[in-house]
Prior knowledge:
This protein is an alpha+beta fold. It contains 4 helices and 9 strands, in the order E-E-E-E-E-E-E-H-H-E-E-H-H.
Amino acid sequence: xxxxxxxxxxxxxxxxxxxxxxxxxxxxxxxxxxxxxxxxxxxxxxxxxxxxxxxxxxxxxxxxxxxxxxxxxxxxxxxxxxxxxxxxxxxxxxxxxxxxxxxxxxxxxxxxxxxxxxxxxxxxxxxxxxxxxxxxxxxxxxxxxxxxxxxxxxxxxxxxxxxxxxxxxxxxxxxxxxxxxxxxxxxxxxxxxxxxx
Length: 197
């Protein structure tokens, strides 16, 4: 929670602050994210406007995950920029015409200041998750895993398997049988004939 009392509802008043907070749970997706409790650096600019406080900031944190191609662990630094308006609870009453109905969708998208405090977590979560790669890789040219045996191809670039087309597999067996038969049918030299006793 961040305090806005110093701004005092005076439009144009500005406050800058830097803070390190612990990352909340589930700050990421299934493959990559900021570990819970990891330090997250926030550089914020709070600006008082007529209807609330405009918050502009940058979040920096170390993210951890795994490569979607080879499943190796990976880590990198993430920087996410964000900007959000936090409205005073009575701001809607001042700006909305009396005859306009409540718009539930607008209400859901609005963040409010309560008791001069605002919660940055939902905004931070949106900014970080949208900045994360959907398909993180350990390196741009990661070849992934062998589809047959699961070996990591980056460790063995020459890795391969002799592919047998299943449509020809039965004939492959016949080739082996024919070669054995041909060996059995090779005529023997006269000197190889068994001698009668």
